[in-house]
Specification:
Blueprint (H helix, E strand, L loop, with lengths): L2 H6 L3 H4 L5 H12 L4 H8 L3 H9 L6 H11 L5
Helix pairs in contact: 4-5
Length: about 80
């Protein structure tokens, strides 16, 4: 484990501003829809802070929210 990982914890790469996978897709889909984080969060019924954490790669949606996010990213209304 690197010093950075020990210092920043298990999400060190994500905290360093390197969102991956779903996080990148969320940002791309939101920008394509010309929505703010608040608007996107409202569309899926989540708190804007939750949305921001998903986009930053600090957390990922689970259960029904994951399914809703996947549908939204793939062009659904959420």
């Amino acid at each position: 484990m690197t010093v950075e990982a020990r210092t920043l914890g298990p999400h060190a790469d994500r905290q360093a501003g390197k969102p991956r996978g779903l996080a990148r897709r969320l940002v791309a889909a939101r920008i394509k829809r010309a929505q703010s984080q608040h608007e996107a969060a409202a569309a899926l019924g989540v708190h804007p802070v939750t949305w921001a954490r998903w986009e930053a790669g600090l957390a990922e949606p689970r259960g029904l929210y994951r399914r809703a996010v996947d549908a939204w990213v793939n062009g659904g209304k959420g």
